[in-house]
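During the first year of the project, the team set up a workflow for recording each protein of interest as an amino acid sequence followed immediately by a discrete structure-token representation. This format lets reviewers and collaborators read both layers of information side by side without switching files. As required by the reporting guidelines, we include two representative entries from the current panel. The first entry is reproduced here exactly as it appears in our internal archive.
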Amino acid sequence: MQQAVDIPEIVEMINHYLTKEEFLNCTSLTKDMRTTLSYVLYKNLSIANASDEFVARLKNYPAHIQKLTLFLDASLPQGEYDECHRRMLSILSLRGLTALRVFRFKINHSGSGVEHEVARPKELSESVLPALERLIAEHSRAPTLPATLTLPTIQTLNLLSLPDSILLSLPTSFWSTSLACASLRTIELTNVVVEEAQYVLFLHLCSKLHSISLTNVTLTMTQEDVEGVEDDPGDAAKMEDILQYGRHDVAAKVVDDPTKGVAEVAIHLGDAESSDRIRKRALTISSTQEQTATIGRTRKRALTVDSTQEHAARIERDRKHARTEDDSEETAEIEHSKDAAEMEDDSEGFTGSHADSKGKARVEDDRRDAENNYSEGSARARDDLDEATRTESAAMDAVEVQVDLTRPPRVLHSPKHLSLSEVFMMPHANIVSQGGPPHAHRAALGHSVSKALFVRRCPSLESLTCRNNDKSDDTQFFALLAQDPWTLTRLESLTIESDRSEDEQVAKVLQRMRRITSFKASATLIGRLSIQALLVRGCDSIEVLRLRNCEGVTSEMTLNLLEWCPNLRVFSADRFKVQDIPLDREWLCRNLREFDVFIERDIHQDTDRDQEGDSLETQDRIMQRVAYSRLGTLTKLRRLSIITKGSRASELTGIGAAATRGLDVRLDAGLEHLTGLSELCEFVYANEGETVTLGSDELKWMAERWPWMKTG
């Protein structure tokens, strides 16, 4: 019989294993089994092998366990995997739990190799389970399994799956209404498949939610999530009118195609006021099934209400006309449409043309009662839900999600920081033309509409990050984002990494921002218009400015930013030429802490003398000293990078390394002008892997001025 392993040894093995493989930075594991428990689920050591008594003892053990880590072997058979889920839900009822992490990964059990750099430690064996059972048994109380899943004290929830190709699909019961997460503040999902409706409902129960991070998450939707409402014929052509969002109601017609099974759905977009009204109604959640059903009917009917005066007048004319008609089907339909838009009652089959005066009085009383009940329920629920939807930080990375334009994900209504990385959003149904196949430009426009409205409905947003997506058309996205009415009144930080972000559209967004403190652009098409918008809107407020691989940003534009932005603290750009430095203008950015720009010397000139008679060598030396003197005025610099030459310089100029030079790191070239940089901690004057030989005088000078500094 194999000797049992002591508990301290088990914890040490797990800690060593995680540290060695750097497995998801599990720093919460400690040697104190009273506060932290790691439960390893291998093929032959899984929770499915544990007895019900063991699970019950584990549930009742800890009043002391605060952090629980579950490792789930992805290679388990389906039956055993389902049993693991059932047992896991029982374990999650630990009353003292404050942090839960569930890891799913794949292990090579044959011992012949390692898959995805995850190896099974030889020391971990089946003897671990009896050892854990003994530990739990010593502190167990009466073995009782919970009827429902509750997480009363948990604050951090991490659900992750490795490798990326294996998605952790959570059962519906995990997100059921029996969840009680009153203390949950942080949720992180990685490589997870989630049903959107259950996920949103789960988030509504988390009244203290502070941060959400989604990485490679697939949000699935059921057919019931797609709500069909009637629309007017010919509305397919109105899709382009979305560019005037906030001014019109737009319906995107989806034509029924029996061969593809496309449903007939209309997506209604109201103006800001009606959208807010619909959102408040949609966010109302009741504690009873009757209230929930009533609110659901109200929300569906509210989506059919047109907020424009023209449509309201048309309804009024139809109502008057209906009174003059006999018991016709048209009268019944018009009256029923009016009642559905204005009333909340369960008498959907009632028509005003067939009701006597007493019946009308009863309907009016019912309508007033329904409105009063709804108002009271809304007032009670709104305070709780507003708190639940104030998520300050939300990150979506590699997410493909279908968005209901009339019902955005509520948890993202008021984040302060939003990051969209490789996010592709589309409406519930494919947008197709009337009687024809889908069109690519309409699909791209549908993505831009969904993504823009998703962001526009974040009124508290302070920072926005958008990274490239091959499927997206970011030009349309930024055009929609900048439309009236401007909703992002608090936005002051913008990060763009997209080769489809055009200068004109990005400039429109920058012009809308009341204050700009940070702007980062990488591999974009920004140029003159965006730089002008930065100087107009952000010259006095911008602190962080990073412009990388932006071909439209010229040497003169880069220098203008240094000359007109006095509060800059971090500045990073591709390059500027020493020949373009104005001799009559100083740099105002005296508070700069980080400077990272390739300072280029143009050597494509005649070898003869210039018009003034000075040799090119003398002129080059003068301009180098001018550049060093400008750098010397930045006395608060802590990091200085003036990459001299090499592969990066070749990429920036496109003329080869032999044709470009950076500043010479020599005293006679002006290096002594940096004497005043007393806070400098890092000086980068060469590319990685490149060797630059410094003279003895320069080395001695640097050692005396910056003995603590890192150079290279």
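The second entry, processed by the same pipeline in the following quarter, appears below.
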Amino acid sequence: MPRLRTTARLAAAALMATMAITAAVQAPAIAYDGCWGSGGAHQDYLGNTYGTAWCNAYTGGNVMAGGVSSGYLNAGNSWFVCQEQWVGYENPHVGSARNNYWLYTQADTSTNSKHGWGWFPATKISGGGNYQPIPGLRNCGTIPIFPSPTP
């Protein structure tokens, strides 16, 4: 009889462990509506240090600087310094999303001397409306020392 109880306990423990691992693996990623929290301080290619906030890029894309790609930002939660509205510089259209706000950040992979720094389109960030800023991310005009090459 004790052997059956031990076997039953081991089976129950194995089942519980399997369920815990499955739950951990299947836990959904949190995709906020807008930006949140502190993404820490980051130094750009000019040596300026900025505080940042987390935002969710629901799709990856090019980070632009002066009309050329500075690098590629992967989908997922990334930090961003600020956002700026650039009239005449439309974001790439994503479905029905339209915008001319761009978010300053550093790409995950760099393709030029700016080390991936540049502008990421608001149309690829969770929480924005058409031609509206992304909630929770400051405007670049509030930063005293800020390089402002166009997207």
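For the second entry, the following points were noted during internal review. The longest helix spans residues 2-26. Confidence is low (pLDDT under 50) at residues 6-29. Both points are flagged for discussion at the upcoming steering committee meeting.
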